[in-house]
């Protein structure tokens, strides 16, 4: 039903300057794997095989990452280092990648609208790679949301509870709890002041969107920061029909911040790498 995942990846990553002056923030490595690859793996786990990436100037490294590197592969052919490329080869064998460029940075809503040419008239997922979501044994966040879409057939946003003094960083929802961790959205506000926040349920970088969102975005006036906000378009959908918010299962790291990126790196090393290397050495 849902086969495409849109990755808005045109931002400058200014919080990581000077590292991101010439390297996309989506290519920042958490241990030995770039953020964008974690996102693509999550999409594949959810059954999505078409990756649609909205890029910008200086983002060619992402296209190169999901492509064959003949010189590198020739150099390591027949060595134990060849195994390091198994994961990325599997991704390339099981998915396709298409790209379009966002000429101006006008907000997440504008980035999603820019991706319309890659998506067409069908429901799709949106994944922000700098929101790194990890599971131990459960399904990934997108897989959880795709399952909900099969049941409800409407737009869905992933939410988590955040401290009230941090709500100004997020889109925030208020809604009616209809069943286990699922809310029907009544109100949605972009980056509210603490006193104006309708709740502490913050939207994170996982969405399932129905294709009518494109027409709504085309007619959405710029909001907070003079940008076209996806929350404003989703609020229009909520008024006209139904938008759900889902309090997902899993652990999320804000890798758009230095603190969150370091936390994610430490967690991934301890959880996935240190334990594996320890068992190999025994």
Q: Summed up, what is this model?
A:
This protein is 34% helix and 26% strand. By secondary structure, the chain is of the alpha/beta class.
Plain-language structure description:
The protein contains 10 helices and 13 strands. With 282 residues, it is α/β, with parallel strands linked by helices. The chain has one domain (4-281): Spore Coat Polysaccharide Biosynthesis Protein SpsA, Chain A (Alpha-Beta Complex). A 5-stranded mixed β-barrel has the order 8-11-9-10-12. A two-stranded antiparallel sheet has the order 2-3. The protein has a two-stranded antiparallel ribbon with strand order 7-13. β2 (29-30) and β3 (33-34) form a beta hairpin. The longest helix has 24 residues, at 258-281. The termini are far apart.
**Structural class of the helix and strand makeup?**
alpha/beta
- Widest sheet, order of strands: 8-11-9-10-12
What would you call the shape?
globular
Tell me roughly what share of residues is in helical segments: 25-40%
CATH fold naming: Spore Coat Polysaccharide Biosynthesis Protein SpsA, Chain A
**What is the name of the CATH class?**
Alpha Beta
How many discrete structural domains? 1
Q: In the CATH classification, which architecture applies? A: Alpha-Beta Complex
Mean pLDDT, rounded to whole units?
A: 90
The number of distinct helices, counting runs of at least 4 residues, comes to 10
Topology as a string of helices (H) and strands (E): EEEHEHHHEHHEEHEEEEHHEEH
Q: Beta-sheet strand percentage?
A: 25-35%
CATH superfamily: Spore Coat Polysaccharide Biosynthesis Protein SpsA, Chain A
The poorly predicted ranges are: none
Biggest sheet architecture: 5 strands, mixed, barrel
Tell how many strands the DSSP assignment holds. 13
Rg over C-alpha atoms, rounded to the nearest angstrom: 19 Å
End-to-end C-alpha gap: 45 Å
